[in-house]
Structures are given as structure tokens and as C-alpha cells.
Specification:
heterodimer; A: about 325 residues; mainly alpha; 17 helices; B: about 300 residues
Chain lengths: ~325, ~300
């Protein structure tokens, strides 16, 4: 028992050469392998079985035959999906919202992080942080309540306390699609910016003070310091996080698009994204063929985006790549 | 470094400092006021809501909504019970499973660490999507309408496995493990009596994030639960927002009360939101420093 840790790295290299060594390693590390067993089982159930289940996109699935014995139909589910206008609409919405979220979020988070870093009293930055990341910990259901408190057409704060005194007739927010490309990014920023700015703040505080000392000696003011030191040194973090977010551009926050819109069908033209579409096709319409095709499309294109993003990160700086 | 120099270097001019603080106060208000509005409506008299709409300062203060809600609390109480149970059990399992995975792959001498790291990275990159996930739960595992449908989906998170691995690797030096092994401690003993106690900060952070994700979960109820026995708190709130009928049906007011009084529909919804948000938002400020340190742990590349 005692020597195995000591001789570990050497035996690790030798093991590749033979089956015998492999089995010896299994025996030697049996406790660690047994520890891995329960979580591995959970990952198989939660992640790997559904990956196999992607095959149902090519099947005419019915509950009596089950997943594995339903008949194959080739690409018919996909033909069906892509001949509707839905595929284009949900793809466009998903991508455009994500781009909007990424860029507005980036600018605001970095701005807030830099500003927060400039406040040198001890107490206030902590207080501001606490308050700003609070929305991040509210559930989307609560966010939907908050949204409703402002947007309800009968009693909502905006209609009754802002528009009415101005003599502007109230707006039916939950049936007017044109306002949602503004409302949804606003809610998303409200919920996420505080949290993201802390990541940038952590990066800023790790910048060595010597850089600023040297700049001060050279006569650089605050703006110059921010422009020529803080921003350039923050750029790698900004680039990585942005590219990773772009890698997830085919995934939408289901809660944001389902809850805060109160799943209002009138809003679908500007609020329907791949995730809400898949959910609805599956649960409300019971159209497993269509929803599994859309689900497959999202998984595969999403995977390509993530691999592409990682590839780009690797090109820029291999230390920052995920793998 | 002398303080005067530091002040010269870091100091903003007084007006700039005031301006910055003002900006942050405004941002802070934007973050907090929306929730204050929900609280204010829940404390408003129903009639004043009809005449003035939702307001930050109730024209007429009333606790009627809360009285109704607590008059017969059974649906909400049941949902509280479900949510608390799922949160406690789920979080305990989550921390156990995450550390069971993170520790072996943090060990430099473990010959299979690359393979198992890959196994988990793959799940971060690619997934089966909603439909096959749903079908696995419903037609393979048959866990719909059971409490497992609420616990299982959130019980592991590859991100926290990676964070845990990084923590174990960097904070528990191989020499410590070696010397414990030389002293005759078995693997399990090293893990339980040495590694875990030294890792309390990261375990606590994991647990806190898990508590929030279980407490705030409504999606798994939406997908898998139709039996009201297992409605979670967030799901009950969501139903209350989407259809008021749900509240009426579930407030088992004695029939004569129902005849006489109109249920304050607007304020009771918001009261429900406050009841659902209550514990977690009260606990939040105390946990905040852990979140920040946890985030910093997470921000360091895994």
C-alpha cells in the first residue's frame, strides 16, 4: 500500500505497453476506481444515454415500440422541420439574442468591473457587489413575477404609473412582439451582469501594481492607465469568455424565453428560440419527430460551434483552450 | 510602499469618486427596486391596486394576501416540503458524487485520470438534447412523477467536478498523500480523513451553488411532474402566475368564506412570490462571500 503512491508516475507510463500492466493498475487503484463508479453511472444516465437517444431523430418514434424498436425513417423528420418557416425563425432568434447578450454583457461587465476597481474605500465595493449579483440568484419564476409587475397591462407599473400620467395609452406588452427584442436583453443584463463583472474584477485585481507604478512615473492619468494597461491585460480574458459564449450560441436560456414572456403565443415571432420550440413541439404538440429533429440539429451544430470556438482559442493562446 | 504614494497613484479626484459612487447607487437601485415592487404589491390593498395599479409605496397597506395564503397553507406547505427535501437530499448527493469523481482525477499518479477527465469533458461539449433526455427519464427510467425526477438531473455538474479537481490538485500536495500512505493509511482513509477536511472551502461553495440550483428549479417539475403531490415550490409559483384559477382551486377556503369574500387575486400572487423567494433571499447576504470566492476558484482555468 505504501509504495504505490511513491512509484506512481513511473508505473503510469509503463502501463500503456501491455494488458498485464493495465490489469495490475486496475487492481492497484481499485479503491479510486470504485469511488468513480457511482458518479460515472449518473453521468451515463444523464449524459451518455441521451446521446445515444439522439438516434430517435431518425426514427418514427412511438411509445408502444419504445426508443430502440421504433422504425427508422431516415431524414424525414429533418425534411419536415426545415420545410416549415419555424427552423429559420428559431435559428435567427437564438443567434441574434445570443449575440446581443454577449456584446452588451461584455461591455457592461467590463465597464462595471473597472469602475468597481477604482473605488478604493473598503466597504462600498463589497456592498455594491452583494447587491449587483443578487438578481443572479433569483429563479426565473421570480424574474417572471418581477417582469409581470412592470409589464402587466392592467396594473403593471409601466402602464399605470409611467405611461398613464404622460397620457400615453397602455401597451399590451404580452401580445406585442416588437418590444421583446429590447425587453429580453434588458432582463438578461439585469440578471447576469453583476456576476460576470466579478470574474473581470478578479482578473483586474490580479494585474501587478508595478505596471501602474511605471505608468504613473511616465505621467499617465487614470484614463491612460485604463486604456493602456487595464484593457490590454484584460483582453485575453475577454476574448476567451466571448469565444466560449459564441460556442454556446445555439443554446438559449429556456427560462428567460419561456417564463418572462409568460409563454405568450402572440410573442413567438420575436421570442421563440430553439429551446422553447423543442419543448413545445415535445410537450404541447406531442410531435416527437419534429422536436427530436430540432433537438438533434441544436446538439450537433452546437457541438461544432464549441469545437470551433475552442480551436480559435487554441490558435490565439493554447494555454487558455479548454482541451 | 508609502501610503502617500499609493494614494497618489490610486486616488481618484473627489468629484470622480462621488460620481462613481452615485452611478453604483443607481445600478444598485435598478437591481433591488424590481424586487421591492413585488414586495410592495404583496402588501397592498386589493382595491387600491385596481384603482392605482402596482406601486412602490402602497396607497393602502394590507396583509390580506398573506392572511389568505396562510389561511389554508396546504398546497404551499406541501410544495415547501418537497423543495426542502429535494434541496437537502440533492445537495448532499451532489457534494458526495462530485468529490468522488474529482478526487481520483486530481491524483497525479492515477493512471486512468486522462480517460476519466475526457469522459467528463465530453459531457460539457456535447449532449443529447431535451427530447432524448426526456425520453430516457420517462420511458427508460420511468422516474416521472417521482422525487428522483427532481433530484437526478441536478445531482452532478461537470463544471464543479473540474473545479474540485483543480482544488484538490493545488491545495493538497502529493507529499502529504505520500506521507499518509507511508504511515499506513488506506486510500479511503486518506480521502475521508485527510483530503475532505482540507477541502471544506470548495465543498461548501459546491454545496451553496447546489442549494441555489435545487431551490430555484422549476424546469424539471415542468417536464416530469403532473402529480400535484410532487409539485415543487417554484412550480407552484409559476402556476400561480400563469393562471389564477390554480390559486383559487388550491386555497381550500371553507365554502361560506369563499361566498362572502373575493380573494385578492393580484396581491396574493405577489405574496406567493415573496413566500417562495423569502428564505433564499434572506440567506443570500450571509453566503455572498463564499460565492465570490467560489467564482474566483471557478474563474481560474480548470
Amino acid at each position: 500500500m505504501a509504495e504505490h503512491v511513491v512509484s506512481a508516475s513511473r508505473s503510469g507510463k509503463k502501463s500503456r505497453s501491455s494488458v498485464h500492466a493495465f490489469l495490475r493498475n486496475v487492481l492497484k487503484y481499485k479503491v479510486l476506481l470504485l469511488m468513480l463508479l457511482p458518479p460515472v453511472l449518473v453521468f451515463i444516465v444523464n449524459a451518455y444515454l441521451p446521446m445515444v437517444g439522439l438516434l430517435i431523430a431518425f426514427k418514427d418514434i412511438n411509445y408502444t415500440d419504445g426508443i430502440f424498436t421504433s422504425p427508422w425513417v431516415g431524414f424525414r423528420n429533418f425534411e419536415y422541420l426545415f420545410t416549415t418557416t419555424d427552423a429559420w425563425r428559431i435559428t435567427r432568434n437564438t443567434i441574434l439574442y445570443n449575440l446581443l447578450f454577449i456584446f452588451s454583457g461584455l461591455v457592461l461587465s467590463v465597464g462595471i468591473a473597472i469602475a468597481l476597481n477604482e473605488i478604493k474605500t473598503r466597504f462600498f465595493p463589497k456592498l455594491y457587489q452583494t447587491i449587483m449579483i443578487m438578481p443572479n440568484f433569483l429563479s426565473m419564476v421570480i424574474v417572471a413575477f418581477v417582469g409581470y409587475a412592470f409589464l402587466s397591462s392592467d396594473s403593471g407599473y409601466i402602464n399605470r404609473s409611467i405611461l398613464e400620467p404622460l397620457g400615453i395609452p397602455g401597451i399590451n406588452w404580452y401580445t406585442e412582439p416588437k418590444y421583446w427584442p429590447f425587453i429580453l436583453p434588458f432582463i438578461n443584463i439585469w440578471k447576469t451582469v453583476g456576476m460576470n463583472s466579478i470574474i473581470y474584477l478578479a482578473a483586474i485585481t490580479s494585474i501587478h501594481a508595478e505596471y501602474y507604478e511605471a505608468a504613473v512615473i511616465d505621467g499617465a492619468g487614470k484614463w491612460k492607465q485604463i486604456r493602456h494597461i487595464t484593457l490590454p491585460l484584460l483582453t485575453p480574458v475577454m476574448v476567451i469568455l466571448t469565444i466560449l459564449a459564441v460556442g454556446n450560441i445555439f443554446r438559449a436560456d429556456f427560462g428567460l424565453f419561456y417564463q418572462t414572456t409568460m409563454n405568450s403565443a402572440a410573442l413567438y415571432p420575436t421570442t421563440d428560440v430553439i429551446d422553447t420550440y423543442v419543448y413545445r413541439a415535445l410537450m404541447n404538440l406531442g410531435d416527437i419527430g419534429m422536436s427530436s429533429a430540432a433537438s438533434f440539429y441544436q446538439s450537433v451544430v452546437g457541438f461544432i460551434c464549441i469545437m470551433g470556438a475552442n480551436w480559435i482559442v487554441k490558435k490565439i493562446n493554447s494555454d487558455n483552450a479548454m482541451f | 510602499m508609502p501610503t502617500s504614494k499609493a494614494a497618489a497613484m490610486n486616488g481618484l479626484s473627489k468629484p470622480a469618486h462621488v460620481a462613481l459612487n452615485t452611478a453604483f447607487i443607481i445600478i444598485g437601485l435598478i437591481c433591488v427596486l424590481p424586487v421591492v415592487l413585488v414586495l410592495a404589491v404583496s402588501l397592498s390593498d386589493e382595491q387600491s391596486i385596481y384603482s392605482h395599479g402596482y406601486q412602490f409605496i402602497p396607497t393602502k397597506f394590507s396583509l390580506a394576501a398573506y392572511r389568505y395564503l396562510f389561511h389554508d397553507f396546504s398546497v404551499v406547505a406541501r410544495a415547501y416540503g418537497v423543495t426542502i427535501m429535494v434541496t437537502v437530499v440533492g445537495t448532499i448527493l451532489n457534494v458526495i458524487l462530485t468529490s468522488l469523481y474529482a478526487y481520483p482525477i486530481s491524483r497525479q499518479d492515477f493512471p486512468f485520470k486522462k480517460a476519466f477527465t475526457m469522459f467528463i469533458l465530453i459531457t460539457m461539449l456535447f449532449n443529447g438534447g431535451l427530447v432524448s433526455f426526456y425520453l430516457v427519464y420517462v420511458s427508460v427510467l420511468h422516474v416521472n412523477n417521482t422525487v428522483w425526477a427532481l433530484i437526478l438531473p441536478l445531482v452532478t455538474n461537470p463544471f464543479w467536478v473540474i473545479v474540485g479537481r483543480t482544488f484538490f490538485k493545488e491545495n493538497i500536495p502529493g507529499e502529504v498523500l505520500e506521507s499518509a500512505a507511508i504511515d499506513g493509511a488506506g486510500e479511503l482513509r486518506i480521502f475521508l480523513q485527510l483530503v475532505l477536511p482540507l477541502s471544506l472551502p470548495v465543498l461548501a461553495t459546491m454545496a451553496l451553488f447546489s442549494i441555489f440550483s435545487y431551490w430555484n428549479d422549476w424546469f424539471n417539475s415542468l417536464l416530469f411532474i403532473t402529480d400535484r403531490k410532487w409539485f415543487s415550490l417554484q412550480y407552484v409559483m409559476m402556476k400561480a402566475l400563469l393562471d389564477f384559477q390554480f390559486i383559487q382551486e388550491n386555497l381550500k377556503l371553507s365554502s361560506n368564506v369563499k361566498q362572502q369574500v373575493k380573494i385578492p387575486s393580484e396581491s396574493i400572487r405577489m405574496a406567493m412570490a415573496m413566500v417562495g423567494m423569502g428564505p433564499i433571499i434572506l440567506a443570500y447576504p450571509f453566503f455572498q462571500r463564499y460565492f465570490v470566492s467560489g467564482l474566483t476558484v471557478g474563474a481560474v482555468k480548470g
